[in-house]
C-alpha cells in the first residue's frame, strides 16, 4: 500500500519539483534481503533437439531457487541470461538477472523523482526483487533481453505503426517493421489509408492496392528472426471492412492455403518450417478485418453495405453485408484468418479520441492504441495470491499491482524505441499493459468452472480490481510527477472511460463470498480512481491488457497462460539431472479437497485422470463437478462460446483487449464461425480470433512427420486400397450370413436405474457365450418410448447375429449424453451419461473379455479397486505385489555440488534416488505421477499419447517438440520459444 508525502525530488521529465511516492513494505522482510530468505541450488541446463539429437544450448552450474522448476530455470537461462556462453561475461545466476533489471528501475525512479528518499527506493527494490524471484509476476521478454545491458533498452513488446497512401510511407513501413522484428518484438498496422486497386493514381494509372504491398512486407518479415532468436517475426495486418479491396484481402490466406494443398499433393514439403513453404505468401502475419457497428447491423438485417473510396470517402461499390460476412467466416473456416476487430466498441473505450482514433492492434490483438505507439507488458501469477484456505488475497494482489505499475511507468523514462515517432507518442501517452496469467488454474483450485457464472464473476472482479488499482496508482503518480502530456486535451474523454469502467463494475453480479470480497475492494478502488483522477489527472493513457504470457508464463511456472483455461489435466514434468515424469495437474487435488472429497476419493480420482487424461467416469466424482475440470483439449473440452463468454466477462475492465483464440472442432461449420463472430460483437468484445482444428495444412502433427505428409500418405493409401478392391470384387462377392440363436439359450435379466428411471434388460447368448440378442423394457407397454426401445432391440439383435462385433456397439453408444442420466444402482457402473451409455457398459462387462473392455476403458468395481491397491487392473499374485512395494522403480539423477564453481561441474557426484528428488517431491504428489512416455517431450505430446487426441499445433523450430496454444499464438514449453508473442 502507498501514500504520497512531500519531498524535494525533481522530475527531470517535466521540469517541476514534486513529491515522492512513499512505499510500504508488504512482501519482503525488514532488514533481510529477499535473496537471503531463499534456498539456492546449482543446476545444469542442456537443451537438445528431440528429433536430431543435436545440442542447441548448454550452460552448466547456473543458480536458481530450489523451488523453481527445471523447465523455468532452463527457459530463463537460455532466453534471458546475457553475455556470450562460455565466457566470464555470461550471467550464471537468477540473482544477476533480477539485479540487472531491478537496479536499473530503481536508479531511474530516483533520478526521475518517483521516490521521496533513498529509503523508499530501497524498499521498492526489495519488494520488486521479492515478487520476481518468488514468481509472483514477470515483465515482458524485452525487459529481460535489454534492460541493464549495453544494447538499446527497449522495454516494449507491442508496437502499432502507421502507413499513408504514398510510396515513401509504404517503404518506411517496411523499414520500421524490420527494426522492430530485429529487436524481438511484434508490430501491427492498418492499411486502409492506401487507396484500393479500384481507384486511380494521380498519373492516371490504376493503384496497386494494399494487398499487393502486403507481399513485400510479408517477404521481409519471413527473412528476419526476432531478436536474433529462432522465432519468426510477429505482425498484424488490419483492413477496414468498407475498403474496396476487402474481398481480396479476406481471400488472401485462404487462397494460399489451397496453393499449399496443391503443392503438397505434388510432393513438395509444405509443413511449417518445410523447405518449400517459403514460396507461399502472407504466412508471416495475422490478418484482421476492422468491422463497424453499421456493418454488423447490416449483417443482422440482411441489407447492403457501401465500400468507400480512400480519397473522397464516397461509396464506389455496394455489397451484400451477409454475403461479405459469410466470405469472412468462410476464409476463417479454411485457414483461421481473418479475425475480427470491432471498431466502434474499441473507440468507445478510447481515452484519447482528441488525439486520434484507434485503427489497429499489435500482432496478438491485446494492445489497441494510437498509431506509432508502443506498450510494455507485465503479468501477475494469480495462483500465488490464493491463500491456503482457498480464498483470494485481494489486498496483497492490489499491493502488487501498485508496485508493478510504478515500475512499468518508470521504465518509460529510460526506454529506447525503434523510431522517434513511436518514442514520442509513448512518452506523451505512457501506455502500460499490466495483466495476469494462471486464471484457469486459479478457478479450478477454487472449485469454479471456467465456463460457469461463478468462474466468470471471479474473473470479472479480479480484472476490475487490477485495472482500478492501476489507474488509482496512475493518478497518484500524476500527483507526484504530473499526468501524461496528452492528458489535458483528452481529460473529459479519459474521465468518461473511467466512469464506464466503474459502471461495469457496479453491474457485476457476485455469486459467492470469494468474489464478493474482491468486488467490494474493487468498488472502493474505482471511487478513488474517479476522485483522484479528477484532481490530479492520470500518468498513463492505458493501464491494462491480457497478453498471451507465453515465455514469461513458463518463467513463473504457471499452469495456464493469460486468460486461457487449462490446456490438459496431465502434465509433462522435467526432472533435475535429466528424465521426465507424467504428473496430474497439481491444482486438481486442491480443487477436489475444496469440493469436499475425502483423501481416498482424491487419490482414486487423480489416479483415474493419470490413466485416462480426463475426468469422465472418474470413480466417485459427481457429474456436477465435471465442468470444473474442463480443459482446452481432450474429452471435456470447452465449447466455443465458453471461451467467448469468459472474454466478455473480463473485457469491460481492460484498457486494451484480450489475446485469445476461440477453438472450434474440426467438424465446425462456417455458420458456427459466423455465430462466434456475431455473438462476440453483441457481448462487447474488442476483437475475436478463431481456430478450427486441422484447418491449416502447414501444422505438423507430432508423429515425426507432418500433417501434410500424413494426409498425402493417407490419400495414396486410399487410392491403392480402392485399386485392390476393384480387382478383388470381380472375383469375390461378400454376402453376410446370419448366425441364429438356438431355440433354447442361456439368458440373463438385469434390472437397472439411471437417474431415477427404471428399466429391465434381457440378453441372450449363443452356446459359445457370444451375445446374440437383447430386449429392453422402458416405459409403459404401448407407449412411444416402449415401442422405440423394442425397435432398437430388434435392430441391435439382428446386427449381432449378422456379425457386427459387440465392441463396435459399445464404442459407438457409450458416452452418449442425454436425459435421464446420473447415478445408477449398479456397483460396476456408478454414473451414466444416458440409458444407452449404461446398457452398453453393462453388456461390455457381461460379455467382453477383459482385454477388449480395457481397450475401451471399461472396468468393474473390483478391477478399479485392484488398480488403486496394486497399480494394475488385472489380478496380480501376492508375491508380485510385495516385490513392487519393496523395490520401487529407480532412476539416476545428477545432483551438482552446490559449493562447486560454475566452471567445475564436469565431475559431478551422482545419487540414486526414487522417482523425484527431495525438492521435487515437495512439489509433486505421488498420486498420478509416473514416468512419461518416451515419445512425449511436452504436455502437448503427452496429451496425445494419453488421450489419443491430436493437438493441432506447430512444432518448435528450436527443439522440435509440439508447441501448445497461448493466446493468439503458440509457445514451446520445452525451450520457451514462441510463434510470435513474448
TrEMBL record:
It comes from the Bacteria. It comes from Nocardioides lentus. Residues 742-846 form the TSCPD domain. Its cofactor is adenosylcob(III)alamin. It holds the Pfam family TSCPD. Its EC number is 1.17.4.1. It is an enzyme of class 1 (oxidoreductase). This is Vitamin B12-dependent ribonucleotide reductase. The keyword Zinc does not apply.
Amino acid at each position: 500500500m502507498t501514500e504520497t508525502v512531500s519531498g524535494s525530488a525533481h522530475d527531470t521529465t517535466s521540469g517541476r519539483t514534486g513529491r515522492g511516492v512513499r512505499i510500504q513494505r508488504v512482501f519482503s522482510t525488514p532488514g533481510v534481503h529477499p535473496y537471503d530468505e531463499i534456498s539456492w541450488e546449482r543446476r545444469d541446463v542442456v537443451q537438445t533437439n528431440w528429433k536430431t539429437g543435436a545440442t542447441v544450448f548448454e550452460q552448466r552450474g547456473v543458480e536458481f531457487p530450489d523451488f523453481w522448476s527445471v523447465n523455468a530455470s532452463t527457459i530463463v537461462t537460455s532466453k534471458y541470461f546475457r553475455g556470450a556462453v562460455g565466457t566470464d561475461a555470461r550471467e550464471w545466476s537468477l540473482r544477476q538477472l533480477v539485479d540487472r533489471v531491478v537496479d536499473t528501475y530503481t536508479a531511474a525512479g530516483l533520478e526521475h523523482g518517483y521516490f521521496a528518499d533513498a529509503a523508499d527506493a530501497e524498499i521498492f527494490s526489495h519488494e520488486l526483487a521479492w515478487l520476481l524471484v518468488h514468481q509472483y509476476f514477470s515483465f515482458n521478454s524485452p525487459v529481460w533481453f535489454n534492460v541493464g545491458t549495453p544494447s538499446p533498452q527497449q522495454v516494449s513488446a507491442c508496437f502499432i505503426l502507421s502507413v499513408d497512401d504514398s510510396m515513401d510511407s509504404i517503404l518506411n513501413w517496411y523499414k520500421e517493421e524490420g527494426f522492430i522484428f530485429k529487436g524481438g518484438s511484434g508490430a501491427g498496422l492498418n492499411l486502409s489509408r492506401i487507396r484500393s486497386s479500384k481507384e486511380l493514381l494521380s498519373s492516371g494509372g490504376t493503384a496497386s492496392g494494399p494487398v499487393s504491398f502486403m507481399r513485400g512486407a510479408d517477404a521481409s518479415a519471413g527473412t528476419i528472426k526476432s531478436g536474433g532468436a529462432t522465432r519468426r517475426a510477429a505482425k498484424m495486418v488490419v483492413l477496414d471492412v468498407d475498403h474496396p479491396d476487402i474481398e481480396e484481402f479476406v481471400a488472401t490466406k485462404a487462397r494460399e492455403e489451397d496453393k499449399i494443398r496443391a503443392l503438397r499433393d505434388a510432393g513438395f514439403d509444405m509443413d511449417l518450417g518445410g523447405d518449400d513453404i517459403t514460396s507461399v505468401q502472407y504466412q508471416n502475419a495475422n490478418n484482421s478485418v476492422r468491422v463497424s457497428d453499421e456493418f454488423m447491423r447490416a449483417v443482422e438485417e440482411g441489407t447492403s453495405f457501401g465500400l468507400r473510396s480512400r480519397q473522397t470517402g464516397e461509396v464506389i461499390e455496394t455489397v451484400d453485408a451477409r454475403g461479405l460476412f459469410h466470405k469472412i467466416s468462410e476464409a476463417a473456416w479454411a485457414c483461421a484468418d481473418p479475425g475480427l476487430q470491432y471498431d466502434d466498441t474499441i473507440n468507445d473505450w478510447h481515452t484519447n479520441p482528441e488525439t486520434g482514433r484507434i485503427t489497429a492492434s499489435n500482432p496478438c490483438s491485446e494492445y489497441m492504441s494510437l498509431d506509432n505507439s508502443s506498450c510494455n507488458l507485465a503479468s501477475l501469477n494469480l495462483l500465488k495470491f490464493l491463500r491456503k484456505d482457498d480464498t483470494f488475497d485481494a489486498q496483497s494482489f492490489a499491493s502488487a499491482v501498485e508496485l508493478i505499475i510504478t515500475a512499468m511507468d518508470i521504465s518509460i523514462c529510460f526506454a529506447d524505441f525503434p523510431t522517434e515517432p513511436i518514442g514520442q507518442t509513448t512518452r506523451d501517452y505512457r501506455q502500460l499493459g499490466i495483466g495476469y496469467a494462471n486464471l484457469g488454474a486459479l478457478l479450478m483450485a477454487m472449485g469454479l468452472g471456467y465456463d460457469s457464472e461463478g468462474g466468470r464473476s471471479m474473473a470479472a472482479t479480479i480484472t476490475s480490481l487490477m485495472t482500478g488499482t492501476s489507474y488509482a496508482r496512475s493518478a497518484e503518480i500524476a500527483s507526484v510527477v504530473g499526468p501524461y502530456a496528452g492528458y489535458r486535451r483528452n481529460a473529459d474523454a479519459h474521465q468518461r472511460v473511467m466512469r464506464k469502467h466503474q459502471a461495469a463494475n457496479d453491474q457485476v453480479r457476485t455469486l459467492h463470498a470469494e468474489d464478493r470480497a474482491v468486488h467490494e475492494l474493487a468498488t472502493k478502488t474505482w471511487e478513488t480512481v474517479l476522485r483522484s483522477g479528477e484532481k490530479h489527472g492520470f500518468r498513463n493513457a492505458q493501464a491494462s491488457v491480457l497478453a498471451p504470457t507465453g515465455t514469461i508464463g513458463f518463467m513463473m511456472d504457471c499452469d495456464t497462460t493469460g486468460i486461457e483455461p487449462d490446456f490438459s489435466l496431465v502434465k509433462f514434468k522435467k526432472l533435475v539431472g535429466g528424465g521426465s515424469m507424467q504428473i496430474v495437474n497439481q491444482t486438481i487435488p486442491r480443487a477436489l479437497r475444496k469440493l469436499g472429497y475425502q483423501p481416498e476419493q482424491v487419490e482414486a480420482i487423480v489416479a483415474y485422470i493419470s490413466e485416462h487424461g480426463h475426468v469422465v467416469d472418474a470413480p466417485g466424482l459427481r457429474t456436477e463437478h465435471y465442468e470444473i475440470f474442463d480443459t482446452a483439449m481432450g474429452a471435456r473440452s470447452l465449447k466455443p462460446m465458453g471461451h467467448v463468454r469468459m472474454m466478455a466477462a473480463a473485457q469491460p475492465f481492460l484498457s486494451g483487449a484480450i489475446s485469445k483464440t476461440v477453438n472450434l472442432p474440426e467438424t465446425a461449420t462456417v455458420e458456427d464461425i459466423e455465430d462466434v463472430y456475431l455473438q462476440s460483437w453483441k457481448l462487447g468484445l474488442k476483437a475475436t480470433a478463431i481456430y478450427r482444428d486441422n484447418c491449416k495444412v502447414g501444422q505438423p502433427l507430432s508423429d515425426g512427420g507432418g500433417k501434410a505428409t500424413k494426409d498425402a500418405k493417407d490419400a495414396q493409401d486410399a487410392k491403392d486400397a480402392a485399386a485392390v478392391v476393384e480387382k478383388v470384387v470381380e472375383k469375390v462377392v461378400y454376402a453376410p450370413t446370419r448366425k441364429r440363436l438356438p431355440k433354447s439359450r442361456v439368458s440373463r435379466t438385469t434390472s437397472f436405474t439411471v437417474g431415477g428411471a427404471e428399466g429391465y434388460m434381457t440378453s441372450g447368448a449363443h452356446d459359445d457365450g457370444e451375445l446374440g440378442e437383447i430386449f429392453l423394457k422402458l416405459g409403459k407397454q404401448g407407449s412411444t418410448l416402449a415401442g422405440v426401445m423394442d425397435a432398437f432391440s430388434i435392430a441391435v439383435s439382428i446386427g449381432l447375429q449378422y456379425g457386427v462385433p459387440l465392441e463396435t456397439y459399445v464404442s459407438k453408444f457409450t458416452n452418449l449424453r442425454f436425459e435421464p442420466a446420473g447415478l445408477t444402482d449398479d456397483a460396476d457402473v456408478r454414473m451414466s451419461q444416458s440409458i444407452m451409455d449404461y446398457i452398453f457398459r453393462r453388456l461390455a462387462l457381461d460379455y467382453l473379455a477383459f482385454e477388449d473392455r480395457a481397450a475401451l476403458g471399461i472396468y468393474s468395481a473390483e478391477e478399479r479397486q485392484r488398480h488403486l491397491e496394486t497399480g494394475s487392473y488385472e489380478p496380480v499374485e501376492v508375491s508380485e505385489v510385495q516385490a513392487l512395494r519393496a523395490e520401487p522403480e529407480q532412476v539416476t539423477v545428477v545432483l551438482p555440488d552446490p559449493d562447486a564453481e560454475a566452471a567445475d561441474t564436469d565431475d559431478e557426484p551422482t545419487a540414486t534416488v526414487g522417482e523425484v528428488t527431495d525438492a521435487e517431491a515437495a512439489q509433486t504428489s505421488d498420486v498420478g505421477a509416473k514416468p512419461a512416455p518416451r515419445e512425449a517431450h511436452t504436455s502437448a505430446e503427452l496429451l496425445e499419447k494419453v488421450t489419443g487426441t491430436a493437438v493441432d499445433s506447430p512444432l518448435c523450430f528450436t527443439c522440435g517438440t509440439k508447441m501448445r496454444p497461448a493466446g493468439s499464438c503458440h509457445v514451446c514449453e520445452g525451450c520457451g520459444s514462441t510463434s510470435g508473442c513474448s
